[in-house]
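Hey, resending since the last one bounced:
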Amino acid sequence: MTSEPLAPLDLAFWNIESAEHPMHLGALGVFTADSPTAGAHAADLLAVRAPAVPGLRMRIRDTWQPPLALRRPFAFGGATREPDPHFDPLDHVRLHAPTTDFHARAGRLMERPLERGRPPWEAHVLPGADGDRFAVLFKFHHALADGLRALTLAAGVLDPMDLPAPGPRPAEPPRRLVPDVRELPGRLRGALSDAGRALDIGAAAALSGLDVRSAPALVAAPSGTRRTAGVAVDLDDVHHVRKTTGGTVNDVLIAVVAGALRRWLDERGDCSEGVAPRALIPVSKRRPRTAHPQGNRLSGYLIRLPVDEPDPLSRLGTVRAAMDRNKDVGPGRGAGAVALLADHVPALGHRLGGPLVSGAARLWFDILVTSVPLPSLGLRLGGHPLTEVYPLAPLARGHALAVAVSTYRGQVHYGLVADAKAVPDLDRFARALAEEVETLLTACRP
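The structure tokens again:
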């Protein structure tokens, strides 16, 4: 394992973190258990397996040192990902007392920022009080992993699966100190294209802030508190709606969020009339054998959620049309692609501008709705099957609620993270998600 500089977006995530808004993502997995000691056995397995996963041994170290800066001037103020010579898995794997509410415990654990002086991840094992289940909360800093990379790291400490071995990575061409003059015209055209795209993204983001119709319930002053909740719905029900109305599964899942927000706002006494919050839909740009294989490769779509639309099928049609428009433009342009601008900022700019950028999320979007793909194969830990998995997204400054979705073994799992003081009724919103699926099913029947 060797050190490597953080990719620009990773560096942005590293620098915008604060005590009130930690930048880690998570996943709460629930396993069946055959004995009350299954959780303790799982914690032992995680600690034993972690050292064999190279990515889990990597810490992030700031690079302020003048010698390094002189060798790579644009790295000054940056950071590197490097092996931790003092790695101890017991610093990262924690066994907790039995609990009757996995989400209540997970919410309190998601409040705590990860230790920045060592590899930024943790695995919290939560035995169930009844002895027939246990849960594991994985936390990964967003600078260490995006959703796909976090899945790979977590899979490394679960029971081995019989998967085909990945093909060899092609050798990278040697780097030249001075570029070939024959490449200069192409590089110039690429730089001009990148500059034009950056201007397009910035202009689209500025326009997206006009005529904002959000809801006070989605806005929160930083409290540093977190609450999580989750709900599982039948994937066959989602497919039935998709087959009846057209579009994609993702269109249906986003429309469910819009309908649940409408139901939740009205039930808590906040009027949903005229509310159309901007939802950021992250899009992974990760490809096999790309540069920065461990880094974040994200763009996004930005859409207005039709919370003010009373008809469920009309809400779905509006979401589908908005997503189609975003796909026509592509993930490299549009207001949702602001994350790509990180590539145009030098390391020192990320360092100095991080605190300012962290407060700009509220101006850019109102709620995060992200999807995390999971393998269809059954996952196990110590022979115990994984039955539920709730992805948990970071909560941006100024936001009260974030929604993450995963599909696993015939179920769709919505994982919810909220500011605990701003959203004390998060369980009510979770119920609204399940009720909205039933509403769409009813609307699709003859």
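Residues 191-444 form a domain with the Chloramphenicol Acetyltransferase fold (CATH 3.30.559.30).

Sorry for the duplicate.
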